[in-house]
Amino acid sequence: MPNKLAQAVAHLRNQDGSRPLMYCSATQMVSQTLEPLKVWPADIPRPVSFYNALIENVCVGCTMVINKETLQLVKKRIPDSLDKLIMHDWWIYLCTSSFGKVVFDPEPYIWYRQHQNNVLGGSTDGWVSKWRKRLSRFAKGKNRYILSKQAQQFIQLYGQDMSPQMYKDMDQFLDSYQKGVFSRMKYIWQSPFYRQSRLDNWIYKLVFVLRKL
Question: What are the residues whose beta carbons fall under 8 Å from the beta carbon of 193, sequence distance 6 or more?
Answer without folding.
Answer: 51, 52, 54, 55, 169, 173, 204
